[in-house]
Amino acid sequence: MKIRTSHGVRIFHIQTILTDEVFMDKTNDVTLLPGERLDIINEDLSLIQKKNGLTFGTDAYLLSAFAPRRGGIAADLGAGTGVASLLCAVRGKSDKMYSVEVQPEFAELCRRNAELNGLSDKITPILKDVREIYAKDTDGEVDFVISNPPYMSADGGKGNDSTVKNIARREICGGIGDFCAAASRILRYGGDFYTVYRCDRLCDLICALRENSLEPKVMVTVYPRKDSAPCLVLLKSKKGGRPGLTVSPPLIIYRDPEAPARYTIPEGEKDLGYTAEFAKIYADFSLDHLFER
Length: 293
Known about the structure:
single chain; alpha/beta; Rossmann fold; nine-stranded mixed sheet; four-stranded antiparallel sheet; 7 helices
């Protein structure tokens, strides 16, 4: 069994088990099928993923951190393997999460991941196209919705050889308008929609939100470095909300190379060069501090 610790452009720590055999963790016998791997995230969450499939990164973690602190009934549109759903459940952000995914292999991984982490009572995978999702599928209207939707048009840019990756990244099974419409259909009046998207498609996102009675209320732009262009935008919208948008100070991932860390680095861990604001998201699992500056 090979074990490696992976640190990328991330605000979480991952221990990856690269094996197709049975792996014993603290509480479970985990059977990994051919082509699968097991990631241990922040020592409190286990995630089965495809070795060569679509794996989660900074966008999914930021999305789940952006979700409200309160519990409630929620839905995750385009849930994939369920990482954002799992993070919300394990950190107490949702009492019940309906994880909607159109690809059978991802929906099954979401189910297995929920079972692996003892969260089957809090996470219900739904194998369905977001264009066909209604409140009856989530046992009534939900309090909030999270989504990391496909960010590339179906015919834009260079495609990937993997159909699974193409569906996850491209608007093949629904565009941003379809995701916003689905969120509006299942949200209660006054409920919130949290999404992460690419900055170059921000106009498309805002137009789609307003067309579906979702008013943008809070926006966070994410920059790799202070002198770079933004790479992601996080947007909170309210169903039936009044106009009025709050924009946070920029969230910058990396500090200047010569600048010292303004936070405590755990003993034995490498300084990855994060800004204090970015590192605090890992500690608090929240973006609230961005609005306190």
